[in-house]
Design a protein that fits this description.
Elements lengths: L7 E6 L7 E7 L2 E7 L5 H21 L9 E4 L4 E5 L16 H16 L2 E2 L7 E3 L5 E3 L6 E2 L6 H25 L6 H6 L7 H19 L1
Antiparallel strand pairs: 1-2, 2-3, 3-5, 4-5, 6-9, 7-8
Helix pairs in contact: 2-3
Length: about 220
C-alpha cells in the first residue's frame, strides 16, 4: 500500500461526500482506473472510506483470474485502488442495438462465477460495461459482500438468494435497454418481488444516512 501520483487522462466521477472520485489515469504506458475518496472529509476517508476500499480490494482478490472482472493492480493509500481499465460504454448508455443475447448470457455466467468465489456484487444493474468486443464486464465492487469462509449454511442461503436478485437485475436491464430481446416470461420475472426486498431497502436507507453523516 503506497501513495503515488498519477496523471489524469479524464475524470469519470467527481466524487465528494460519500462518493468516490473515479479517474482514468496514465499507468506504465497504458491506462488504468484510479478510485479513491480524496474529496471526502478526513474522518470519512479514515473510517468508512478505508473500510469500503478494503472490502472492495478483498473482493477483487477473491476474483483474481475470473474473466470479465477488472484486475486489481494496487492499493493506493488506505482509501484508494488502482484497477485495470475496461474500454467500452456503461450498459446504461450503450445503444440498444449493440446488445445481444450473448451479452446477457455472458453476464449471467460472470455472476455465477463471482458467487462461486463467495462474493455477492449487490449492485449489478448499473455496473456492467459493454466491452469493445461485445462481451460484458462486471465493474465496481464497492457495494459487494465478501462472505467469510466460516459462514457455512448461511453463506449458501445468501448466495442462493443473491442469485435471484442478480437474475432479476439482468432482466430489468434487458427490459430497459434491450426490450427487443426480452421474452414474455422474462418480462414477468423482471417484475416479481423477491424475499426480504422491503427490509433490504430499509437497511440501505439507514446505511446511506449513517455514511452521509460520517462524510460531513
Amino acid at each position: 500500500m503506497r501513495s503515488r501520483y498519477f496523471s489524469t487522462i479524464a475524470p469519470l466521477q467527481p466524487g465528494g461526500g460519500v462518493f468516490a472520485v473515479v479517474r482514468l489515469v496514465e499507468h506504465e504506458g497504458g491506462q488504468a482506473i484510479l478510485k479513491d475518496f480524496s474529496r471526502s472529509s478526513r474522518l470519512f476517508r479514515s473510517t468508512f472510506g478505508a473500510y469500503l476500499i478494503g472490502r472492495e480490494a478483498q473482493a477483487y482478490g477473491r476474483l483474481a483470474g475470473v474473466a470479465g472482472i477488472p484486475r486489481l493492480i494496487d492499493r493506493i493509500r488506505p482509501d484508494g485502488l488502482l484497477l485495470s481499465h475496461v474500454a467500452g460504454p456503461n450498459c446504461l448508455s450503450a445503444p440498444p442495438e449493440k446488445f445481444t443475447q450473448d451479452f446477457f448470457d455472458g453476464a449471467l455466467g460472470i455472476l455465477a462465477k463471482v458467487r462461486a468465489r463467495g462474493v455477492l456484487h449487490c449492485d449489478v444493474g448499473g455496473n456492467l460495461v459493454l466491452g469493445s468486443d461485445g462481451r460484458p464486464w462486471l465493474v465496481d465492487f464497492g457495494s459487494s459482500i465478501v462472505l467469510p469462509t466460516w459462514i457455512g449454511p448461511l453463506g449458501s442461503y445468501l448466495t442462493s438468494l443473491r442469485e435471484k436478485y442478480d437474475e432479476r437485475a439482468l432482466l430489468k436491464l434487458k427490459r430497459r435497454r434491450a426490450p427487443h430481446l426480452l421474452s414474455t416470461s422474462e418480462d414477468e420475472r423482471s417484475r416479481v418481488r423477491l424475499p426480504f426486498e422491503r427490509w433490504v431497502g430499509v437497511g440501505e436507507r439507514v446505511l446511506r444516512r449513517t455514511i452521509g453523516w460520517m462524510s460531513g
